[in-house]
Design goal:
By secondary structure, the protein is α/β, with parallel strands linked by helices. The chain is 52% helix and 13% strand. It has ten helices and five strands, in the order βαβαβαβαβαααααα. Strands 2-1-3-4-5 form a five-stranded parallel beta sheet, with helices on both faces.
Length: 204
């Protein structure tokens, strides 16, 4: 039997929290072991939960999801986060990525897409949508204050990013660049890692 991934959900909207938790539990390889309304409730329970991946809303009452990612990773640096949100503004996406999130999915997306993001992150990859790739690419074009970390992207990572921006799938990118699907995932993971900076002073 395949290993079951332990997922924690943090979402303040009651109906959506219940629905998403139920849908996650219908996936053969996922189990939503806990669901919380606030970041404070999540962080209080975190030491006893030991989740594999946290599906974290950004717009929470009290402490924001982005702030919770920062403070949680200070204590548990190996914890994996996928942001779960309606936010598509550039500043929100940038803050989530630099805080330490390894994936970003929108609440209106089908559960299969959300489950895929969780699996990708747990397996050492990162799900990067076309919209997020566009944000990172725009940051690269900024002359004055580019997003910290973008200046260290390798030529191959830039090639992957450019193709993501065009809407190409991982498989299509792999075929065009003559690399494996897993290598594409690794490059995307490295892009996320390079964008991680200590923004605690900005977020609190």
């Amino acid at each position: 039997m395949a290993n079951i991934l332990r997922v924690v959900l943090v979402e303040d909207e009651d109906d959506l929290r219940k629905l998403t938790a139920s849908q996650l539990n219908m996936q053969a390889d996922l189990e939503c072991i806990a669901a919380f309304r606030t970041a404070e409730e999540f962080e209080a329970a975190l030491p006893s939960l030991q989740p594999d991946v946290v599906l974290m809303d950004i717009g929470l009452p009290g402490k924001s999801g982005i702030q919770s990612v920062v403070s949680s990773l200070e204590k548990y640096p190996d914890l994996e986060f996928v942001m779960f949100t309606t936010h598509t503004e550039e500043v929100e996406i940038v803050d989530a990525m630099t805080a330490g999130a390894n994936g970003y999915v929108l609440k209106h997306e089908p559960i299969d897409r959300i489950a895929l993001a969780i699996r990708e992150v747990h397996n050492g990859g990162s799900l990067m949508s076309r919209s997020i790739a566009r944000v990172v690419h725009r940051q690269l074009q900024k002359k004055q204050t580019p997003l910290p970390g973008t200046e260290t992207l390798t030529n191959r990572e830039l090639e992957v990013l450019e193709r993501l921006k065009k809407g190409m799938t991982y498989k299509e990118i792999a075929e065009e660049l003559v690399i494996s699907d897993q290598t594409v995932r690794t490059h995307i993971r490295n892009i996320y890692k390079k964008l991680r900076i200590n923004r605690k002073s900005d977020l609190f």
